[in-house]
Request: fold
Amino acid sequence: MYIFELIGKLRKDYKEGKGIFSKKAEVQKSLDDEYAACEHIFVPIDSTKKVLACSKCGFILHREDINKINKGIL
Reply:
């Protein structure tokens, strides 16, 4: 019965946005703000040069997505 109570509590916390789930949301928001504030300089991280990473903050993206960054979509 304990496992069902635990699942119920986790589900309730998830709906209310507190507990272990709220910390993940706060961390993700702070990372997004950090990435947005960075002046990205992308360099290839593999030999195919299809995957790029920012040399300052470590933000990773594929070469196809760089146009989305420039247009402000990502």
Summary: The mean pLDDT is 75. The beta strands are 42-44, 51-54, 60-62. Helices lie at 2-16, 20-37, 66-71. The two ends are 44 Å apart (CA to CA).
